[in-house]
Structure formats: C-alpha cells, structure tokens
Amino acid sequence: MKNTYWLSGILFLFVFSSFAKTDKYRLTIRSNPSTSIVVCWNQISGDAPIVYYGTKDRGTQADNYKYQQEPSRIIAYQGMNNHFARLENLKPDTAYYFVIKDSEGSSERFWFKTAPAKNEPLSFIAGGDSRNNRLPRQNANILVSKLKPHAVLFGGDMTARDVEGQWRDWMDDWQLTTSKDGRMIPIIAARGNHEKSNKSVYNLFDTPSEDVYFAITFGKNLFRSYTLNSMIAIEGNQTDWLKKDLKENNDVIWKSAQYHKPMRPHVASKAEHNLQYAAWAQLFYDEEVRLVVECDAHTVKRTWPLKPSTGPDSEEGFIRENNKGTVYVGEGCWGAPLRPANDAKSWTRDSGKFNQVKWIFVDTEKIECRTLLVENAEDVEEVPNNNPFKTPENLKIWTPKNGAVVSIHK
Predict the structure, then answer these.
(1) DSSP three-state, residue 397
(2) Total structural domains in the chain?
(3) How far apart are CA 85 and CA 272, in angstroms?
(4) What does the alpha-carbon distance between residue 308 and residue 248 come to, in Å, rounded to a whole number?
(5) With helix as H, strand as E and coil as C, how does 206-221 read?
(6) CB 226 within 8 A of CB 255
(7) Between the CA of residue 259 and those of 129, 294, 410, what are the distances in Å?
(8) pLDDT in tens, 11-50
(9) C or N terminus of the chain, fewer CB within 10 Å?
(10) What is the rounded (10 degree) CA torsion for 367, 370, 371, 377?
C-alpha cells in the first residue's frame, strides 16, 4: 500500500511539473476574425514560450501540432508578464486547438473557432462594468462559456481601481468564460473611466490601436463593430477617423458601435455627454449605425430606433424614427453596483435595474438583441458548439412590456 501511495505521489508530481507555468488566458481580435486571433497569457516562470496549434486535437502533446508561433509582443503590466501571440493565415470557420509550451512544460489544451468569412449568422454577448461584485461578474462569465458567441464586446470598467490585485482577480474570473471542453471566446475591449489610461486596455488586450478606438469586420461585409473611446478627446482624430472609416465601409450590411459613457444616461445622477452627442449621434444616423451598446451608468435600458432632432416632439436631442433610426442599449451591469433606472425618456423602450448582458444575433436580414439575467448561470444548459443560436434551458431572458426581442431590420 505504501508503494502505491508513493507511486501515485510521484505520478502527481510528474504531471503537475510537466505543465507550463502560465495562467490568465484570454483571446483577443486585432484584425480579420476569420483568419486571425491573438492568444494572450501571463507567463509565471519558464523560458521561450511558444504557442503550438493546429486543426487536429493533439491534446497537450505540443510537438504534434502542425504550427507554432512565438510571442509577438511581451509587456510587464499590472503585476503580470503579458504575452501576446498573434496567429495569422488561419482558415475561416475552423476549430483550432493549441497549447503553450515553455522550458517547464505545456499548458492544458484549449481551442477556439475562427469566424465565418461568408455572411453567415453571428452571435455576440455585449456589456460592461464588471468592477466590484465578483459573483454577478462570474455568473456573466459563465454565461459566455455556455452560449459560445463569436466574440464578447466589453465596454470597459473591468475593475474598480485599475490596480494589480483587482486585475489579477478579473483575469482569474475571466477563465470562467472557457467552456468545459476548453473552448475560449475572444474579447473585444473598450476603455471605461475606471481604466486610468489607454495602457490598461492596450497592454492587457493587445488592441489594434494604442488609442483604443478601432473597427473589426465580421463575415465578408456582414457586421462592422466599432469600438470607440469615450475617455479621450471626442472631436479631432477619433471622430475624423470614424467619419472616414464609415464612408470607406459603406458596403457593410450592418454597423454597430460600443463605447463606455452613454450620450443620454438613464440614471438621473449621471451627467449628459453632449460632446459625444454632437460628434456621433448624427453621424451614426447618417451612416446607418443601427445598434449602439453603451455602459457606465450601471442600469438597464434599450431605446426605440432614434434620430437626432431638436424639434417640438424631441427629448434630449432625439426623436423616435422607426425606419433607419439607431437603437441604443446598455448601460453596464456586469457586476458593478446597480443604480436605479430613474431617468427614462419618451423614446425609451424599456428600462430596469438588475445584473445583465446583451445577447445579439446578426444575419443579412436583421439584428436581434435580447437582455439576459445572469444570476442563475450555473443552471443554464450549454449550447452545442455548432449552434450558438439555440436558446438553452433555464436561460432567463428579460421580457418587459414591449417584448423580449429588439429586432432591427433593413
């Protein structure tokens, strides 16, 4: 019996020591999501880490994978040794398996799926403000792992004070977005006011712009997602770039935007953001940006389709316009302290106060947006890997007086 325990102990030590000393894994997107991905991690110890990957699942046997990629960028930041391996020339709509191997061993095996290159239906989860309360934050992360969207659009305020310990906790909680079979979901991150500088987003998520405003197109030309930065100058370079990019991509079927601070918050104590309204509201309408995800106020809202107006029937610079108007949804609630939705407008469709995320479907004919309650995430059924559009058992979808689904049509 002693020999059995001794052998088991040796085996445990061998297995444990054979794993690379890495953690805090995440995926990000900085270019074409059909053909690229960024594998990000914290290197605790060990030398010469390499991502080994391929379309065949080789488990943790790194040398059996067809491809390999050294870190493209390394930055020590927020108490983590952040490594970013940018994988390029991938096949669209394809599962890729990978491990990280260094001088001390290999990580566990993970996998991801590239986005379709054709204009096939897409699924997203959107939201933000995960600052303080870890339980709702963890529940929302678990929903990501079970709903398996093509990407998460995260609108900032990941932590409360933008300090090392909170970021380490946030990254640990983010591991809950990985499915039981090791599938990881990429995050597209925006900056909030609780990120003290652009570096917090750029150095932890390897965004394609150090100024943290950029755009990513999914499909051939199905959906272009704009990530804007409400924490830097609105006028000038950012809006000049936005105008130019919208014009250059007028063939895109659907355009959407995410940023942190809402133009017209639905919490009475929050200030109006007139500079954003002046720079972006008319531009969104003119260029047919049909869905905008805002955060910051820690409450729940969704509007009717809106057109900027100062006419007699308008309120706070907007009027309802059903045909080509912009729908604004938000405003945070991934774990930050909740605030009452006490500043509804005449054009507010529905509002409330609870922890939630948005579940967004996109196809060539329409966008659908649902609001998901997160508190029972453990009980929600996991959707199949090949069907992220299935409504799983026990999923709680908010159904206010104007209905559960916001549908936007051409």
Answers:
(1) strand
(2) 2
(3) 40
(4) 23
(5) CCCCCCCCEEEEECCC
(6) yes
(7) 11, 6, 23
(8) 333 333 445 699 999 999 999 999 999 999 999 999 999 9
(9) N
(10) -120
